[in-house]
Specification:
This protein has 10 helices and 17 strands. By secondary structure, the chain is α/β, with parallel strands linked by helices. The chain has 2 domains: about 280 residues, 3-Layer(bba) Sandwich (Glucose Oxidase, domain 1), CATH 3.50.30; about 30 residues, no CATH class.
């Protein structure tokens, strides 16, 4: 397979650590990583980007028909009613004066649907974000240092959609398509000034794979098979552009199969999360937003994408809202 940098994966990882590691950049106690690029001025300017008032949810529905395969115990959400209209109609709730209610519960892995990977989710040679030993960060009680509750108010900024699926394909990139920095820059040039990337932006990359799953009425290999995604070689662009986060409409952000010979597991994640401190968003539904952007030629928006503040979480389910 083509290896984007270095003669082996070991060489490529070592080079990437040397070039892109942000440890200590925001102090020894940092729990925000690249979200530090979003400041008050950035948020204020992002609010001004929302002009038309059109709103788009970028989340998949959380239900039993989601994409999760169930491997390693990570299945789809299970939603169960504790009380329903049936009990209320039967007068079985024991509540006075005709009052009735419904109540429910959900059980799910935190990355069962649209989510942010937390800073404690991936390690590199035993180290978590900012050079901490992974066993000192995440224990059986959860992430004690960089849990997703610590970023609960941070995912508010200017969002930019890079519709690579439309710009360099026919709307849907084929599975296994390697998105390079050249493809990202080509997309920005094709889309025009509103898609120029600035510090503190959250970049959404649309590949069209999710649209293909919908068109074929099934998840197929969405979680386990080949997928379009970012090249390992894009890490330099992700680091140098000083974006706050990147998300895609795929299951793992990076291309599958990977660009290195096996054994190889998520090499872009291995550098991006524990070394750069970059947040990765997975399974973002950008199709409706992309259609609107293509129609009016505006690819920037206010993005409000705070995950659930689950104490100690290493993943954050989210309903991202784009406001144009």
């Amino acid at each position: 397979m083509t290896e984007p940098t270095g003669s082996t994966l070991t060489d490529a990882l070592a080079e990437a650590r040397r070039k892109y590691r942000n440890w200590g950049r925001w102090g020894p106690d940092d729990a925000l990583g690249t979200l530090n690029y979003i400041d008050d001025g950035k948020r204020s300017a992002a609010v001004a980007v929302a002009r038309a008032g059109r709103v788009f949810s970028l989340a998949l529905e959380f239900n039993r028909d989601g994409p999760r395969s169930g491997s390693r115990g990570r299945g789809n959400p299970i939603h169960t009613m504790l009380d329903s209209g049936l009990e209320a109609a039967a007068g079985a709730q024991g509540l006075p004066h005709g009052f009735g209610d419904a109540d429910d519960v959900v059980f799910m892995p935190l990355r069962a649907g649209t989510h942010w990977d937390g800073l404690g989710h991936v390690y590199d040679k035993g180290f978590a974000w900012n050079g901490r030993r992974c066993e000192d960060v995440v224990t059986g009680a959860g992430d004690q240092v960089t849990g997703v509750e610590r970023q609960a108010a941070s995912f508010v900024t200017r969002g930019v959609l890079l519709d690579v699926g439309r710009a360099v394909g026919d709307g849907e990139l084929p599975d296994g398509f390697v998105i390079t920095e050249h493809h990202l820059r080509t997309t920005i040039a094709a889309q025009g000034p509103s898609s120029a990337i600035d510090r503190g932006d959250i970049v959404l990359v649309r590949t069209g794979q999710l649209a293909r799953c919908r068109r074929l009425a099934g998840w197929g290999g969405y979680t386990t098979g080949a997928a379009p995604g970012l090249s390992f070689g894009v890490l330099g662009w992700l680091h140098g552009s000083e974006i706050a986060a990147v998300a895609t409409d795929t299951f793992t952000v990076e291309v599958r199969p990977h660009e290195f010979d096996p054994p190889c597991v998520l090499p872009l994640h291995q550098i991006a999360i524990p070394n750069i401190g970059l947040f990765l968003g997975e399974m973002f539904d950008t199709d409706a937003l992309a259609a609107d952007c293509a129609a009016d030629g505006v690819y920037e928006f206010l993005l409000v994408a705070a995950g659930l503040p689950i104490t100690g979480g290493v993943g954050a389910p989210v309903n991202p809202i784009a406001i144009k």
